Amino acid sequence: MTAATETGSGLPAEWRVRLPVFEGPLDLLLHLVRVNEVEISDIPVTLICDQFHEYLGLMEELDLDVAAEYLYEAALLIQLKSRMLLPRRADGDEPEEDPRQELVERLLEYRRLKEASQSLAEIHGLRMGIWTREPDLPDADPDERLDLGEVSLYDLLKAFGQVIERYDREHPHALRLAVETWSVRKQFDRLLERLAPARPIDLLDDLRRRSSRGEAVAAFLAVLELLRLRLVRLHGTGAGELLLYRTDRAVSDEERESVPS
Amino acid sequence: MTEQAEIEAVVEAVLFAANEPIGEPRLLELFPDDDRKRVLAAVDAVLERYAERPNRGVMAERVAGGVRLATRPELAGWLRRFFDIRGRQRLSMAALETLAIVAYRQPVSGPEIQELRGVNSSAVLKTLLERRLIRIAGRKPVVGKPFLYATTREFLVQFGLSSLQDLPPLEEFEELAQPGSGRAVEEAAASSE
Description:
heterodimer, A: mainly alpha, B: two-stranded antiparallel ribbon, 9 helices, 5 strands, globular
C-alpha cells in the first residue's frame, strides 16, 4: 500500500480534496478509465493499477475503512500488471489471449448494469411522486380483514429470528443441567390439537411462551411442516402479528408419519 | 349485452374504488361473454380519458399487468405540501445496482450478485426484501445452496412496468461501449507482439 503513495502516478489534483465515493472497486476502476480517457478494451494496466493503489492510499490516510473487496481487486491488478510484463509466446496460429480480457469483460458487464441502474434511478425518482389511494380495509368478514398481505418465507424467518433474539435477551444463559430434546412431531400434534377451526393462534406470541429455545425451534419447525401439508394458513396483520389458521384439510396418518419425530 | 357507455362507467368506477392495479381478466368476469370486445374497448377508452394531460390531476396507467388510477407525478410537490409530507425515502445507488442485477438476471443468487458488483451485497438485499421489491425465489442447487432472488409485483408497480418484458433491453446500454471491443483487444494484443 505504501508503494502507491510513492509512485505519484498523477492523480488529478482535485482528488486530494474531493474524494468521490464509489460503489465498489469496479466502480472505481470505471471512474479511472473515464478520467484517463482510455478505452476499456485497451486499459493501460500499469497506470490504472498505480492510480487504484493511490486511491486506496488516500482512503487509508483519511482513515476510511478500505473494504476487503478493494484489496482483493488491488491484488488482482498487481497480478495482471506482472502478467503484462511477461514476454508472450509468439508461436502457434491461435490468436494470443489478452491477459486483460477477463477484466475487460467484467468492466463492460458492470458498466451495462450501472447504466441500467441509472435509468432505474430516473424512473424511481419520477415515480416516487405518484400517489394512489391507501389500501383501506374492506369491511367484509372479520377473518378476511386480517388477510392484509401475503406472508413470505422471508417474513417468517425474520419473525422467528426476532423471537429467538428476544428469548436470548430475556433468558440469559444459566447453568445447563440436562440436554433437552424436543420432538417436532409432538409439537405438530399439539398445535393441531389446539387449532380450533375459527380460532387462530398468534404464532409469535405462542413461540415466545415456550419454555426453552429448543422447544421454540421444534415448534417453529412444526409450523413449517403444517404449512407444507397445507393444514394451516398464515396471515399477517397490520399490527405485525402472524396468525395461524387451521384449514379444512384433514391430516392423514401417512402425512403425520412424514413429520420428523 | 351491455351498453358500451355503461361498461366504461363501470370500469372507471372499479378503478376509482380499487387500491391495486386491476387486470382485464377480472373486469371481463363481471360481464357476459359476448361483451368481451366492448369491455376491452372500454378499458382503452378509460385509459384514453385519463391520459396524462396538463389539466388533469389523476391519470390512468398500465402497471403490473393491470390498470390503475394515480396522481400525476408532476403534482408531487403540491401533494406533499398539502399532506405535509417530506420526500419519501429514495433507494441508494447500491440498492438500485443490486435491483438492476436482480431484475435483469433473475433468478439470481447472492454470490452471483456479488461477483457482478464486486462488493458484498447482503445488506442491500435485505433492504430490497424489506421494501418488497424483491423476493426469495428458491435456492440454487450448487454448493451452499444460496438463495435465489427475483423481483416482485410491487417492483413492477413502483417502476411503472406492465411486465418484466417492459424493462429496457440491457443491450441498449451497450451503445456507449465501443463497437467491436473484443476485436480491439485482439488487435491490441497483436500489435504488442
